[in-house]
Amino acid sequence: MATRRILALHGYSQNRHILSQRMSAITKLCKDCEFVFADAPHVLDAVTPQDYRVFDPAASAGSNDPKTMPRAWFRIDPKTQMYTGLERSVIYLRDMLAQTHFHGVFGFSQGTAMASIICAILERPHLYPSFLIDGVSPHPPLDFAIFVSGLKPYRHESLPPLFSEPLNTRTLHVIGRNDVITTPERSQALIDAYVDPRVEYHDGGHFIPAKTNWRNFFASYIASTSPYAGGMQVPPPVPKPLTESSTTSTPAQPLDKIVE
């Protein structure tokens, strides 16, 4: 089976090293897969008291160490309440996609917002002209997207047209029933943005579930995204993860507006 290359986008205040550690138990089980963990282009060097409340505990404000340096895909302007820095992140990911072919994307928290923007642009590149290179999209639409603690991006003038109609990218939405940062109610808006989404719940909070049942489920789901898995044109459906309390990764923290 050919290698499945998956772009992995971290949450607010994380970085590629932190997300890679949090997903290590999952990625080890994903055979014939290459996860490419990307660093968001914005370094959180000016930190407000509000930021500290949502910082990943593995990140360190003001750190010069790439492994602990907090990053973000965008921030929210305190006056306008709109996203700032979004265009830079879009172009940064466009250039990655122009260099490498990806089959899917895995996003966590703020990373799901960025991942969903990329899915939308790849389906409707004519609605985001700055993404084009010589008038052409540098990458075809993705085969699938996995959103954990997902949220729909909307605080930017370029976004409403992209999400004006449901998107066709195959999606898996994993939601924590006790997530107080990205509540199940907030995640519903992202679910509704896609045609025929698959939704699974775990009993924990704002983290990527990684107990045995969940990492087996993620591995099986990703394997099923190949149209030729097991020599079949259409792979069999992936069973739901067994009932088990979730564990590991970022603990739940107070609800915050910055990660929207």
Notes on the protein architecture:
This is Serine hydrolase domain-containing protein. GO terms for molecular function: hydrolase activity. Pfam families: FSH1. Residues 243-252 have a biased composition (Polar residues). With 260 residues, this protein is of the alpha/beta class. It has one domain: Alpha/Beta hydrolase fold, catalytic domain (Rossmann fold, 3-Layer(aba) Sandwich). It has helices spanning 16-22, 24-27, 49-54, 86-99, 110-123, 159-162, 184-191, 212-224, and strands at residues 4-9, 33-38, 42-43, 71-72, 75-76, 83-84, 104-108, 144-148, 170-176, 198-202. It has a six-stranded parallel beta sheet, sandwiched between helices. The protein has a two-stranded antiparallel ribbon with strand order 3-4. The longest helix is centred in the middle third of the chain and has 14 residues, at 86-99. The termini are far apart.
